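Handout, page 2. Input:
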Amino acid sequence: MTIVTIHEAKTNLSRLIARVLAGEEVTIARGKEPVVKLMPVNAPPKTKRVLGTLKGKIDLDVGFWDPLPEEDLALWNGEDSPEAQ
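Output:
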């Protein structure tokens, strides 16, 4: 938990917001007395993730695991397509 003064909060508000959105808890104090907490408006729900919830709900095409064609692979690697050369 981070505690900052009102002056520090006014000076670094954007940075403090980024830290809160990353999950850190930030408290603003008047002098040494904590007065408010910064928190996200839409905090992510605290639900437990369950593996396999999409099993049987997604169908993959037969060729999903086939290697990419050379021209597509070149584009994914940031190269010019072999056809363009």
